[in-house]
Design brief:
It is built from 2 helices and no strands. It is mainly alpha-helical. It starts with a helix and ends with a helix.
Length: 44
């Protein structure tokens, strides 16, 4: 939520390196976890 608020309301104060780091570091594990959850849901 913090990242979203920052991107929406602070256009000129966005640290693009931080955004990129979030994409590279945080999204892949999140995607993996979501795929696992969806896979488990589809088995039920």
């Amino acid at each position: 939520v913090t990242m979203r608020n920052r991107l929406i309301h602070a256009y000129f104060d966005v640290d693009l390196d931080r955004v990129w780091d979030t994409i590279i570091d945080d999204l892949p594990p999140l995607i993996h976890k979501l795929k696992t959850i969806l896979s488990m849901e589809n088995r039920s």
